[in-house]
Amino acid sequence: xxxxxxxxxxxxxxxxxxxxxxxxxxxxxxxxxxxxxxxxxxxxxxxxxxxxxxxxxxxxxxxxxxxxxxxxxxxxxxxxxxxxxxxxxxxxxxxxxxxxxxxxxxxxxxxxxxxxxxxxxxxxxxxxxxxxxxxxxxxxxxxxxxxxxxxxxxxxxxxxxxxxxxxxxxxxxxxxxxxxxxxxxxxxxxxxxxxxxxxxxxxxxxxxxxxxxxxxxxxxxxxxxxxxxxxxxxxxxxxxxxxxxxxxxxxxxxxxxxxxxxxxxxxxxxxxxxxxxxxxxxxxxxxxxxxxxxxxxxxxxxxxxxxxxxxxxxxxxxxxxx
Length: 322
Known about the structure:
The protein is α/β, with parallel strands linked by helices.
């Protein structure tokens, strides 16, 4: 790997925000403090994902005070993956750092990321060795999700690595060429390849507010990740269908032989009822798996944009609006 100058690249922080008004200014202060110890030029692209609180107003005020802060406002809540995509599309700089504004992603870790980048890494992803402030259930479900993704994904996705990472410009440009609408960014970060290294850290608890990721959203997010980068559910449904068919064929042979030897006895209603419910459930689950993949195809063929920008502030291209 070729050596690079860690002091050279301009750093662009990309921070999606949804109802994070109380975290915007503390996040900005933390970035200013962290970058004051480094010689690198830097900027922040704040993406308001259709917030209903004062997030956008706070971001606009901050942009007016600090020209290094740029704001992209989406027309509604498109979800974090779309907001992150919008931020990457609007990011300048030589390296880009997706980061949460709740300060669970410490900006001071960028110094270590730049050192790894200087050694030749194209992507430096932060791996969470500890997740402070999170319940046992959330930690356990996250660990289970990463194990499941590791077992089923056709692309190795680093466990316990969120969106917080440092990305070289050429990787960002490559990500911009991927035009799929339903985006699972952790998978896309891994899919593009390049030289990627891990940087362990302990993730602190949120400074203010509460997480917007309810368990139902996390469940849907897990399904999104699995169906985006694996066809294992379809294969499992097929294999299970073969197993059930084989068992049914074997049982039918047993019934024929038994009838020939011992005659016909009256079948029991409960066993028939249970069998009907079982196979009906299997069929509905299989149809649901198929529907999930067909729904993704349906969304993609419409070619709708991943997000819509209604307002931009702090950019130098003369396109500020609002």
